[in-house]
Amino acid sequence: MTLLDETRTRTTGAYDAMRGGPVGPPLAVRRWPWALLAALLGAAAGAAVVLLARRVVGEDAPGAQEPEELRAVIDLRAGA
User: Fold this and answer.
1) What is the CA radius of gyration of the chain?
2) How far is CA 65 from the centre of its chain?
């Protein structure tokens, strides 16, 4: 069964159901291999993006301060 045949069958079934007609059982097509492949490809793509982002961004400079160690310097002459 081709993709167009399956689409046509499901579309006519949905149209018949909206009109109140009888609807047969869904077509028995295995979809779990495609879902598994898509999940694995998504995980691999996500890992590749993380590795690429680490290479582009790099590491902090030596002696860089942690965010909780920073203090704001307020210039009292500027706003008052």
Assistant:
1) 29
2) 34
**Pair of tokens at residue 80:** 């008052």
Whole-number Å distance between alpha carbons of 43 and 36: 11
Cβ pair 17, 23 in contact under 8 A: yes
**CA angle, corner 51, sides to 63 and 67, nearest 5?**
30
Q: Which residue has the tokens 């965010």?
A: 67
Could you tell me the pTM of the whole model? 0.44
Average pLDDT by stretches of 10, the chain with 80 residues = 83 87 72 92 96 83 78 66
**With 0-12 CB in 10 A as exposed, 13-18 as middle and 19+ as buried, what is 22?**
exposed
